[in-house]
Each structure stands twice: as C-alpha cells, then as structure tokens.
Amino acid sequence: MDNSICQVYEDEIQSLEEEIKLLAEKYEDNQQESTFFSDEEILMSIKSFQREFQGQSKGHESPSDLKAQLESLETDLSFLMKFTGIQFTSHSKKTVEKTTNRTVQKHRLSGNCHSLSFQLEFQLLEMQNKENVSAVITDLSIIMESGEDSDVSKFVSSTEEQGNLLTFFRSLSSYAEWYEHRRCTFLHFK
Amino acid sequence: GVFAHLEMLEARAHEAAVKQEETEQQEEKLARLKARVQELRLQRDELRAKVDLQQKGQLGKEGVLSDPAQPSARAVLEWKIKSVKAMLQVFYLTGISGKLTKRGVCFCISTAYEGTYLDSYHLDLLTKAEVQIHRHSVPIFIPLEQIAKKYLQTDIRRFLSVLSDHLNAYAGRRYQADQLQDRFSDRIEGTLQRNSLCNLLVFNYNVSSKSKTFPFNVRLLYGDLCCSLPTEVTVSCTPDAPASLAETAAAHSDLFRRVALHKAFRSFSSAEESVD
C-alpha cells in the first residue's frame, strides 16, 4: 500500500516539475516578446556592463563573452541578408500556446528584397514527435507594396492560401532580382 | 533444545529488526517525497502568480512594457542576443540560412511542401581559395556534383537556388507519396513502388463503378527533377473492365498531371461520396 502512495507522490512531482518548466519558459517568453530596446540602448548597455563588471568573475558570462556572442550573431545575420538579398526590417513574435510537445507562435515580419517590400503575418506551429520537430505555417497573410500588379497579387493570394512561406521567399528572391535587372536595364536606356 | 531455541529467537529478532528498518526507511522516503511535493507546489504557485502579474501588466498598456525595475545591462544584452537568434531562425523559414565559419560558410537549405517544413540539408563550403564543398548532407541521388560544376565557382547564389529547386521538388514528391500511403492506404492495392529519388511511382488503386471495384494501375514519371508534378502519366485498367472506365482512366490521368497526388485522391473520395 505504501508503494502506491509513493507512486502518487512521484507522479505529482513529475507533473509539477513539468509545469514549473513550462511556466518559467512562459515567463521568459513573455518578457522577451513584450520588450524592445533600441540600438542606442543596446550600445549603452554594452558600455555600462563593461564598466560595472570590471574585475568580477561570477561564473556568468563576462561582458566580452556576451559582446562577442552578439557580434558573431549579428555578423551571421548581416551576411545572410546581404547574400540572399532579403533584408528584414522588423520582426516580432508572440508565443500563443506552449505545452510540452507543442508550441504555437504568431510572427510579424517586415522587410524588403531589393526594391520590393513586404509585410507578413503568420502562425508557426512546432510539434515535438519521437525523432524530430515538425514545423507548419498557418494563417499566412502577405502584403506587398507592388500589390497592384495583377501577377503579383495572384501569386500572393495562392501563396497565402497554401501557407507557402518558403515558396514566397524563393520566388520573391528571383522575382526581385529580375525586377531589379529590368529596372537597371530600363534606366540604362533612359 | 536450548541452542536451537536461542537461534530461533535470534532469527526472529533479526527479522523484526530488518522489518523495523524497512518500515523506517519507507516512512522516511514518504516524508521526503511529501516535502518535495510541498516545495514544488509552492514554487509552482509563485511562478503562476508571477506570470499572472506579467500578463495583467501587459493588458494595461499596448506595445512596449517597461519593467518596473530598470533592466540590468546584462538583461538588455541577453534580450538582444535572443532577438537576433530569433531573426536567424526566421531565415530558416525562407529556405536558405547559414552561418559563417572560420574557413567559409555553412549553408542550410530547408525544404517545405506548402506550409509544412520537411527535411533540411547542410553544405559546409570552403571559400578561401576556390569554392569547395567540404561536407554536406545532400542525398546521393541528387545531382550535386553536376550542379556544383555548373555554378559553384561563378555564382554561389545560383548554385544554392538550383540545388534548392532539386531538393524541394524531391521533398515535395516524397511528401505526396507518403501522404498517399498514410491517408489513402485503403484505396491502394498492394505496395506503392517508388525509387529513392521519388520520381518514378507505380501502384494499383481501386476505382468503384456501380458498386463494383476495379483495379487501376498507375505509372507516374517525374521527368523534370525540379518539379513535383509528373511529366508522364499512364493509367490503365484491366481488360475485363467496362468501357466506361476508360473515360475515368483518362480523366484520372489528366488529373494526376495537374494536381498533387494526395489531393487528387482526396477529390476521388469526395466525388465518389457525392455520387453514392
């Protein structure tokens, strides 16, 4: 009889630990997603962090570690934007649902590809199954600046319908390059 | 007599002592577990309250929430790091992402079918001298060397774009075949035969006409490796099938050429439901 009581306690301990983990993540996500710091604030923080840290070594990462990490990430990001031609100007996300196996986030993304600008909203559902994480896009909404062009609007609406985010970016990339090439050619002959 | 009796008493005492210890250990364990449960419950309740407060604060104001306590410089930096990481993750969704390495770049090509992301493939490129593929996870049946020979040295972007076309088309074909096997297994007779590149599919499926079922045989050839729709479709029925079915076979053949495989089957099911 004692063993079953033990089991009950152990089950509750496991479920509490899971709940605590999810709550902690929810708190972190909320903090992250509802805050915004400008580039100046970031620079100021780097400076003040380096000042106040002098000499201490806590076991936390030092300011130079964090600064190096940030620089490496920003270098990767600017390389990708330059290489692909896709410049993101703003990105925000909100975690709408989070359980042990399932996360749903709402994303808002704007940017441009060469001279074509876009604004996107979508929901990203990530599910953990045995071997990997699956990702599915739903509720995709696309606003493009050159939306009056009938070809573009047809493309946009079929892409939205199928949630085809990947195809959107790949096509955008090649369309933008072609558009840019055409524009340059046109200017050349002007 | 006496010895035996003494031994017996000793044994009994020993047994009792062992039992006593077991009971005490059990009680200790229960007490520990109970204490742990209380501790965790308290922690959980505190966290819940913290999260509720956080959300109430957000309901009050739109947009930017500033922490009542000024965030530390470290917190600001950590925020920025997470924020840049999130944006790098978005690049994954665009189909081409990567990171710089000491000797070049490691690219990641992601594939998707409509809104569902499928496998991703990595290429570790060395760019110091001429561009070289150091390592990659591209499957062997994708003509990587051919594509590299054509574009890698002159236009890396084009190389990745063409490779991405191949990989996405392959992923799309495989996805359709998988969906067919998973969702419409009841209509497939026998096994669905496919090659690793998933550009040749052969299978039999059932078509019902006037409450009788007839097997159709399909051969789908995807001649364009950058396309996830077939270029050649052959649908045939058995010689004893009624003549009207030839029309159905032709209609299906046409459908398979235009519509994704699993979607075509979805439309068969709903068409048949409406006829019956």
TrEMBL record, chain A:
Pfam families: CENP-P. Signal peptide: none annotated. Residues 6-33 form a coiled coil. Keywords: Coiled coil. GO terms for cellular component: chromosome, centromeric region; nucleus. GO terms for biological process: CENP-A containing chromatin assembly. This is Centromere protein P. It comes from Aptenodytes patagonicus (King penguin). The gene is CENPP.
From TrEMBL, chain B:
Keywords: Centromere, Chromosome, Coiled coil, Nucleus. InterPro entries: CENP-O. Its main location: nucleus. It is found in: Chromosome, Centromere; Nucleus. It comes from the Eukaryota. Residues 6-57 form a coiled coil. GO terms for cellular component: Mis6-Sim4 complex; nucleus. PANTHER family: CENTROMERE PROTEIN O, INNER KINETOCHORE SUBUNIT MAL2. Belongs to the CENP-O/MCM21 family. This is Centromere protein O. The gene is CENPO.
